[in-house]
């Protein structure tokens, strides 16, 4: 790789599997108006009416609201490098729309973690994160399940 | 989306505090053994956002109940991509009509880049 950053060694299978159940500290997140304007603009859309947040906020709102970060999630799975993470899927459920300038409480955990091989025999670790987002009345208003592949020796 | 923007990827990377250089460093992407050339890779939420915008244009800005997305191919800066969908079922849930859909993001030459399902509230 030309980035000059040596890849980290591959963690043991058991180290990965033991991540299942790991809970993030929890916390809260408020989507600021300016943030919603920029986020929505990045998708090419106009700002939504009535203070609605663009639904793609359900990516970073739960991550930061639960007290973690993308970088920490990379580190948790001992990513070889920041380049080595690939997305498998997102599963986003909205029980009510998200709004800007509302303080949401979030809990998050590693739902599953397993060592896998692709059809070419290459090893990767499949880690699934689950986040629950609650409104100020403690009602569950959204859920995000993010599944990433931590590739090993592929790049 | 007539042209996926590298500048928007950079803005998004800053907003998300996403350290992955795939989204902002063309040289880093070119160095990968993936044959992608000097083009940055769109963030997953952005590509999904194009599909969300299509669904909003069809059924309104608070229509999405659930969206499940897989990412079989990357979306690259400079590409023209099109969001599409088809209704697969209509059902009632707690007095609300829901449309279940297959949705995807496609490129004229490379085919389907993102694909998944969405459940949409109809009013």
Explain the overall architecture:
The complex is a heterodimer of chains A (155) and B (123). Chain A has helices at residues 13-17, 33-42, 57-65, 70-76; strands spanning 27-30, 85-94, 103-117, 123-134, 140-151. Chain A has 155 residues and is an alpha+beta fold. Chain A has a single domain, classed as Thiol Ester Dehydrase, Chain A, CATH 3.10.129. Chain B has one domain (6-122): Thiol Ester Dehydrase, Chain A (Roll). In chain B, strands 1-4-3-2 form a 4-stranded antiparallel β-sheet. The longest helix of chain B is centred in the middle third of the chain and has 16 residues, at 44-59. Chain B starts with 5 loop residues before the first helix and ends with a strand.
Q: Categorize the overall geometry of chain B.
A: elongated
Largest sheet of chain A: 5 strands, antiparallel
CATH topology of chain A: Thiol Ester Dehydrase, Chain A
Low-pLDDT segments, ≥5 res of chain B: none
Taken as a percent bin, the fraction of beta residues of chain A is: 25-35%
Q: Can you name the CATH architecture of chain B?
A: Roll
Strand content of chain B: 35-45%
Number of helices of chain A: 4
The end-to-end distance of chain A, rounded to whole angstroms, is 7 Å
In short:
The complex is a heterodimer of chains A (155) and B (123). With 155 residues, chain A is of the alpha+beta class.
Topology:
The complex is a heterodimer of chains A (155) and B (123).
Chain A: H1 13-17, E1 27-30, H2 33-42, H3 57-65, H4 70-76, E2 85-94, E3 103-117, E4 123-134, E5 140-151
Antiparallel strand pairs in A: 1-3, 2-5, 3-4, 4-5
Chain B: H1 6-16, H2 26-30, H3 44-59, E1 64-70, E2 81-93, E3 96-107, E4 111-122
Antiparallel strand pairs in B: 1-4, 2-3, 3-4
